[in-house]
Amino acid sequence: MPSDKPDRILRLKAVLARTSISRATIYRKVAAGTFPRQRKLNTRCAGWLESEIDAWMQNPFFYSVDDNAIT
After folding, report:
1. Whole-angstrom Cα distance, residue 36 to residue 33?
2. CA separation (Å) from 12 to 2, 4, 20?
3. Which of 32, 34, 41, 14 is nearest to 23 (CA)?
4. pLDDT value for 4
5. What pLDDT does residue 6 have?
6. 1-7 contacts: CB < 8 A, separation 24 or more?
7. For each successive 10 residues of the chain (71 residues), what is the average pLDDT?
8. What is the fold of 9-58?
9. Strand partners, 46
10. Is 36 exposed, middle or buried (0-12, 13-18, 19+ CB in 10 A)?
11. What are the sequence ranges of the domains in the chain?
């Protein structure tokens, strides 16, 4: 379902607050492919697409990362 609102970038603090899981768990799930990958914004800055976090929250147990997605 397409939306007219732009996709925002969420920083780690916002992702932690929104998902209520720990930082270590987020990175473990990213490595396992069961949580959205962060996008590199700068040399020392990364964030997650809000739409990907929302998709994960809809169905966290069956979420998997599409390896063919553009990063």
Report:
1. 7
2. 25, 25, 11
3. 14
4. 72
5. 80
6. 7/49, 7/50, 7/51
7. 78 96 95 94 94 91 70 47
8. Recoverin; domain 1 (1.10.238)
9. 40
10. buried
11. 9-58
User: How far from the centroid of its chain's Cα atoms is residue 31's Cα?
Assistant: 12
Contact 27, 55 (CB under 8 A): no
In three state form, how does the secondary structure of the chain look? CCCCCCCCEECHHHHHHHHCCCHHHHHHHHHHCCCCCCEEEECCEEEEEHHHHHHHHHCCCCCCCCCCCCC
What backbone phi and psi angles, to 5 degrees, belong to 58?
A: -65, -35
Amino acid at 39: R
pLDDT of residue 71: 47
List strands edge to edge, sheet with 45-49: 9-10, 45-49, 39-42
Q: Write the single-letter amino acid at 55.
A: A
